[in-house]
Design a protein that fits this description.
Blueprint: E1 2-3, H1 21-36, E2 51-55, H2 62-76, E3 83-90, H3 101-116, E4 122-129, H4 138-143, H5 150-163, E5 170-176, H6 184-189, E6 192-195, H7 201-218, E7 221-222, H8 226-229, H9 236-240, H10 246-251, H11 258-261, H12 275-281, H13 289-299, H14 305-319, E8 325-326, H15 327-343, H16 347-361, H17 364-367, H18 376-392
Parallel strand pairs: 2-5, 2-6, 3-4, 4-5, 7-8
Antiparallel strand pairs: 1-3
Length: about 400
């Protein structure tokens, strides 16, 4: 797809990590591309492979981070590369049951990328998901007397990466859940190896907060001031239509300088505040929405980012009745599903529960993910689509 793309708009802002990983990666890539374009430096001077490896547990946000990076790069480097293309490659689309075919498909892919990179005005960002399928350890395969396509595919992958080393207008971003199973030569070629782990409790708070605020914004949940004011603020019907004038007056009791310290307050009157702001402004009000969500987030420590984004939907579908439901009701339901998840469920089981419950309530379209078939026909179709995209960029 061409970038920047509306489908990826706002994706960068949803990225929440314990450390500023997105900003670090963006700055590093832009800086290295700039140095690669410096006429004072030759290819032999640059000890840099334009290959980024994002590794970590499933559901930690690696693929989302890669897509957000691609969108940001297209914007930041628009003056250098007027056109940016993004290609997403599913590793299983390059695997074949026919001996020797997988290596050929990998070779064709990189030939197409090399062909597209001839255009100096084009930036090509390629995402290869679950790259361990293509970069399996050759040493382990040899020890196991594995004569499958694993070794051939890895060899072709390494050759393709080496061809692109002198092409600063191509950025390869690979993701993996199993870096320990990957070939050492591949790992050694990575210009940046970034671990993306499970969110800590502060990150968990921000992830869940963003989902709940979206539910409030869309009208599926209404926000009351009961918890934040430390007092009853009226009936459900009254609290559903809180005016921009009444909210600051209620919170003036908490902080007289609230509006000046939070310039975006008038835009977020009916939303859960950021954790740092809530701790500063509402610390002497123990029974607040933020405090309740902070407590829930501590219980959710260790859950993946993908799971955290799904749990508010599961809570809404399983343990609430009214639509819209109150925020207090949703938080009570959320605490319940977090405890259930932390005690017994795996991420895969949670995804199944979410899909089942949301289907019953008619919200399945909001969160269902597209899944791919394992049939040979679909794999061939995916690979054909990838090669067609690359051909349009000036490849094969």
């Amino acid at each position: 797809i061409a970038l920047p793309n509306r489908s990826l708009d706002g994706l960068w802002e949803t990225l929440v990590f314990e450390e500023p990983i997105p900003e670090y990666l963006l700055r590093t890539i832009i800086r290295m591309i700039s140095l690669s374009e410096d006429p004072r430096l030759g290819p032999a001077d640059m000890c840099w492979h334009n290959l980024i490896l994002l590794h970590g547990p499933p559901g930690s946000g690696k693929s989302t981070l890669a897509k957000g990076l691609a969108q940001k790069l297209s914007i930041r480097l628009a003056s250098v590369y007027p056109v940016t293309k993004f290609i997403e490659v599913k590793s299983h689309a390059l695997l074949s049951k026919f001996f020797g075919e997988s290596g050929k498909l990998v070779g064709k892919l990189f030939d197409a990328i090399v062909g597209a990179s001839v255009d100096d005005n084009l930036l090509t960002v390629v995402l290869i998901d679950e790259v361990e399928s293509l970069a399996a350890s050759r040493a382990k395969a040899s020890q196991a007397n594995d004569i499958s396509d694993a070794i051939r595919s890895t060899n072709e992958l390494l050759r393709g990466i080496d061809k692109l080393r002198s092409r600063p207008n191509v950025v390869l971003v690979c993701t993996s859940n199993l870096i320990e199973n990957m070939d050492l030569a591949f790992v050694d070629r990575c210009g940046v190896k970034q671990y993306v782990g499970e969110p800590n409790f502060e990150a968990a708070y921000e992830i869940v907060r963003s989902v709940i605020n979206k539910l409030i914004k869309t009208g599926l949940v209404y926000f009351t001031l009961t918890m934040d004011c430390g007092q009853e603020c009226g009936s459900n019907s009254q609290s559903t239509n809180i005016s921009s004038n009444s909210y600051p007056s209620q919170l003036d009791e908490v902080s007289p300088s609230l509006e000046s310290e939070s310039p975006n307050l008038t835009e977020d009157l009916n939303s859960i505040p950021e954790l740092a702001w809530a701790r500063l402004q509402l610390s002497h009000h123990g029974n607040t929405t933020a405090a309740k969500l902070e407590s829930i987030s501590q219980l959710a420590t260790g859950l993946s980012g993908r799971t955290l984004r799904r749990l508010p939907w599961l809570a809404l579908a399983r343990y609430t009745v009214d639509e819209p439901c109150s925020l207090a009701e949703l938080l009570t339901a959320l605490e319940k599903v977090v405890l259930e998840e932390a005690q017994s469920s795996t991420p895969e089981e949670t995804e199944s529960k979410v899909d089942e419950e949301l289907t019953k309530k008619g919200h399945a379209g909001s969160v269902q993910d597209q899944t791919s078939s394992d049939t040979d026909d679909l794999l061939a179709h995916e690979m054909e689509g990838i090669l067609k995209d690359m051909t349009r960029l000036g490849g094969l």
